[in-house]
Description:
The complex is a heterodimer. Chain A contains 1 helix and 20 strands. By secondary structure, chain A is mostly beta strands. Chain A folds into 2 domains: 29-147, Immunoglobulin-like, CATH 2.60.40; 152-280, Immunoglobulin-like (Sandwich). In chain A, the strands form 4 sheets. In chain A, strands 1, 2, 4, 5, 6, 7 and 9 form a 7-stranded mixed β-sheet that branches. Among the domains of chain B are: 40-189, Leucine-rich Repeat Variant; 379-490, Leucine-rich Repeat Variant (Alpha Horseshoe), CATH 1.25.10.10. Chain B has 30 helices and no strands. Chain B is flat and about 75 Å long. The N and C termini of chain B lie far apart (125 Å). Mean pLDDT of chain B is 89; it is low at 1-12, 26-32 and 478-490. Chains A and B meet through helix 1, strand 13 and strand 16 of A and helix 2, helix 3, helix 4 and helix 30 of B.
Amino acid sequence: MKKDVLITLSVSFLILVLGLFWYYGTGADVHIADMTAPPVGVGSRGQLDIVLQNNGSEPVDVWLEVENAFVDETGKSYSTSRLIISNESESLWNAELVSLQKPVKLLPGNNSVSVMLGYQLPGEYEVEVKVSEDSRLLDKAALVVEVPPPELLLKLEYEKERMETSDVYGIFGYLINHGLSSARDVSTNLTVINERTGKTVFTSSRTYDVRGNDKSALWTWPDYPYAIVEIAHEGPSGESYMPVQNVVIGGSEDRFRINVTSTWQDQVVSAELLLPPEEEGR
Amino acid sequence: MHMIKRYELLSCGHAKLLLLLILLAGTCAGCLGQDPLEARVENLVRGIGDEDPSISCASVDGLVDIGEPAVDSLIKALKDEDPQVRSLAAHALGQMKTQRAADPLLEILDDHSPEVRMNASYSLGLIGDTKAVEPLIGLLEDEDEKVFLYTVVALGRLGDPRAVEPLAEILDSDNDDLRREAMHSLEGIGDPRTVDPFLDLLADEKLGTSAAYTLSRFESEQVFGKLTALLDSRNPTTRTNAIIALGNLRDPAAVPFLLEMLDDRTPEVRREAAFYLGLLEPEEAAPAEQPLINALEDSETEVQEAAARSLGGIGSKEAVPPLEELLQDKNQNLQVAAVKALGEIGGPEAFDSLIPLLEDEDWFVREKVVGSLVEIGDLRAVDPLISLLGDESYRVRRSAAKGLGKLGDERAVGPLLMALETERERDVRAAEVRALGDLGGPEAAEGLRRISTDMDEYRSVRAVAEEILGKFEDGGEANASSSSFSSSSS
């Protein structure tokens, strides 16, 4: 009995060693030589470039699995389903797309492939790449991809126009994003306070989208301001100012503080104007 | 009976162990040795039966991606119990356009599920094997409307003349969608036998114009005589569509017929005749010039408008005085047609008549005048266009900027840079930047460099500046001006 047990254990151990050797040791000589991924903006299409080195003398079919290639707005992670085989074109849209449902043929030497990446939330994501031949893992490597948040700021400016006995200030504004990531649904509130009374005389709210390294105008209609402040020195001009919706009318004695505040996740930015400006006096 | 005793079993201990190991090894080999591609195909075929449409559709996409190695499994799936699996397998095989799938797809054309018949039929059209023609013609008896519709489309893709008659019969159907698809399918087949059914369709309010365009794709000798005969039809829709077909044939022999139709009693017919006369090559247009000038006095504005545009198209110098009169017309469409025509005809007289309209109160007119002045290419337009960089309408400012770029006079560089200091509208800024690129020169290049690095600039405008600077560097021509116009006056 003892001998049987010993034989059984020995053979089992041998199978285990052979299995491990088969799984890790007898596959093609393929390694991940390099991986690079520049920072990618939220909602933008990123790219992970992988150099796969086939040290054999024959082409090898390998499977690629890329974890954490996509993360949706809820934080759920997905592996990539498509792969770009690098070609002469620098444009992602012109690159040859192949499916990861099939193995990738690696020629002897270095092979460049690129994987599409996409993230709906800023952060740092560890992207893991596994290369296998049939079911044998040949190599694996991970890389942290940086997805920086948007960097928002607001800018307000105005134009003054004289209309009969009124001064009309047309207010223009921009939501500027100096970050790489886009910001969607940026909640933006306009508040107009009469400095004389301290009371809020007008509020409005709207959401804006702004792409990375871009700006969005706050006004809706081309050539029409975001908001209008009319200082009527005798009586209101009666002008409707359509299609501008944000309109405040006051008298000579009034001065208005125009505050615009934008909020995106935990970022809050604001800008202010005082109209008429102090240098104009009253 | 020989009994195996316990000790005998124990004595076979090594054999038992060996057997166990063989089984274990077999199982391992079975698991580890299974072709992963095959395993994926199996999983994906299972996936196409999933209740969740996103999974079933993604599975179809995955199988289509895999291609040939998935064909056998998909063909097998055509006999699955689940109609969704059969239907989507048929769909996937069509997407893969694999010839091997034709016979198996033909076998399921009588499937009890309409979805399966529909996808099988459509896929046969995609695969393009003409042995499917007769079975698909048979499927035109199908009671299900979608099956019928997809079969019509499939027959069109197959392009086989055997389908002409059955498809032509559908043109008489009450269902407009079916008739439209039948028409497109017949158009794809392009058989001469389709001419007559299409001629009949010219009277149709809904499909007549499409039929006219289709007829114009036939050789002129196949349709010309039949179309001119229809110009005498009592039905104005037929006459209008016959003109559309004749006009699109671009056959000079059609000119006398088109001219004759300028006197038709129906305005739409006269309008189409006037329009197609404007598409003639200038050397063929001489006989049309005076009749078109006469048509400027037609009782209907739409005819006058078409005549004005056509006179511009053929470059009629004789038409300049009557067109100038139309510049004051109260009908804006007519006014703008005259503006456009004068721009196409060109010359100092046309230029002089257009300049006062830059003061028009309507931005639409001002914008069109800018376009025409630029088309004339007279450099006297530069100063007025520079003034329009401050126009109240962004559309006019944008047109002025584009025009200054096209006119290529470097005097505009400074004003364009100045306009960029205050311009707020993105599209106008982009046009101004492009104009600077057209004009070139060190001052423009410097301005473009500033814009290309300004992170408070609209991204698209910055990108335009970067692109132009890249071209400057490639061509080494930052000092070059792209002016290609000659001045008729300085």
